[in-house]
Amino acid sequence: MSTYSARLAALRDQLARQQLDGFVVPLTDEHMSEYVGAYAQRLSWLTGFQGSAGTAVVLPAEAAIFTDGRYTLQVREQVSGDDWQFVGVPETSVSGWLADHARQGARIGYDPWLHTRAWVDEASRALAAIDATLVPVDTNPVDAVWPDRPAPSDAPLTVQDDAHAGRSSAEKRAAVADWLVAHGADSVVLASLESTAWLLNVRGGDVSRTPVALSYTIVNADGTADLYVAPEKMNDAVAAHLGNAVRVHDRRSFAAALGQFVGRRVAVDPALSVAAIPLAIEAAGGTVVPLRDPTVIPRATKNAVEQAGHRAASIRDGAALSRFLRWIAIEGPKGGQTELSAAAKLEEFRRETGVLKDLSFDAISATGPHGAIPHYHVTEETNLPIEPGQLYLIDSGGQYVDGTTDVTRVVPMGRPTQEMRDRFTRVLKGHIALATAVFPRGTTGAQLDALARLPLWQAGLDFAHGTGHGVGSYLSVHEGPARIAKPSYPGAGPSEPLLPGMILSNEPGYYKAGEYGIRIENLLLVHEQDVPGGESTMLAFETLTLAPIDRDLVDPALLTPGELSWLNDYHARVAATLAPVLEGEEREWIVSRCSPIIVG
After folding, report:
1. Range of the domain at 431
2. Rounded CA separation 81/308 (Å)
3. For 56-96, how does the pLDDT look when each residue is reduced to its tens digit (9 = 90+)?
4. In what residue span(s) does the Creatinase N-terminal domain sit (predicted)?
5. What are the DSSP calls for 150-200, one per residue?
6. Do 579 and 448 reside in the same domain of the chain?
7. How far is residue 137's CA from residue 18's CA, in Å, rounded to a whole number?
8. What are the counts of helices (DSSP H) followed by strands (DSSP E) for the chain?
9. CA gap 367, 373 in Å, rounded
10. What DSSP character marks residue 64?
11. One domain for residues 130 and 179
12. Which end of the chain has fewer beta carbons closer than 10 Å to its terminal beta carbon, N or C?
């Protein structure tokens, strides 16, 4: 198993033993998570792909890996084209490809604990056209041939104090109970790890960079709940925090517990639950009510305490990032630094705050050509030296008990070219257009997305990723349901109306393959705003992130007076907020780098 080719061959042998003519390997876990624990990294183990979204299909004579536009370059760097076909989504669907490539009458396996019911139905219909069958497996064949598969994490649960959560777990459970009564349901199954963490005000350490615990929760109409989690994760503090209204069970008993709903109506979120859950409830004689997880919108619309916490986190995180930006601007052009050493230095600055719990994701530390890979992941094998003349892109964030951060900046290693400045300034113009948007209630991210792209479109340019994603409160750095993206972007997020309290990223970019990448990312808070003379209250954004935007990459001639005013005002706020928490040369640097740009 020392090569990916050997792993693919072993999987094919296992499929033959299980009398399967193919198998689908998604990048997810039994909670439909975007980021998954090491034990669930089946796609990475099989193919070498290290992105955060993708699916593989293995047939006896061919195999394909499916990724979206964010990973067009990355997948080709990490996965062998000798073994795998590269297929883009949404242009081609997994089920459509299967119908075109599987043999007549084939038996295609899938793990019902790793796919939604909607996907199962779609794939079954597609395969029916060739008299093929989608077959659920009891034993995942990848697991059967993965000899050193890691065990699930045994990290303990911790309590998220009400002082940071803003609402008690009892209040949240009571709201869910009211929701169940209103919808005529007896219980709701919460399969999302973030939902359990938010509802019960607990956190964990089972997924790298995301403070969640492997668990399920069933909430009942009387306000009680049943938590399914490994017993070793519990401790006296968590037990006392949960109280008698939350019954704790071994996570391994969850599947069997789905058989208790005979004659009962059970709400299940079709998008956040794997197919095995509704199928088990129905098999036991229960009725599945397909409804959105009732914690999704309350979790996404941060309360006043969570908003204040994020502002505090943004100040300390912005100070740490600004220290790094000064360091890399000085040390980078000298030579001797690499993508890995730079990422380590930034983490060091964040840890010096004394309150960093973890990074919010593995930093995208990318210089030169690697910057053109939007979701590049640096490894020992890919690590490049940072050299003069390059653009260095750093996309990173921190997990703090009061907030989750995500920010991207670009630093030139020496004097940038005029093309670099032109592209950077166009990205900045789009960033400003979104940051200053005023819009009515009901507006979706898809409607706002074009604002961030127009300056690039006018030059015949674009970028192949979403403009913004939701961010959790000491939870996942990628949080649904809202996002800012083209309507055709994978997932249903762009159709979600933005609501006050939501935190989303603002990150337009530009990528020149083989040369450099540009992205400017701040986090935005949706809030209500009165418009003088307006007929209704509108919505607008507050920029939360505080860190300098590199002046040397800005071409002021391309900015309108309003855009230049926004940039100068933003930098004035950055300096006024961060200078008091910095010292000596670092304080002098932030003041200098945030001084106003004056034209003419």
Report:
1. 301-593
2. 49
3. 999 999 999 999 887 888 899 899 999 999 999 888 999 99
4. 7-138
5. PPPP-PPPEE--HHHHSS-HHHHHHHHHHHHHHTT-SEEEE--HHHHHHHH
6. yes
7. 9
8. 19, 28
9. 10
10. E
11. no
12. C
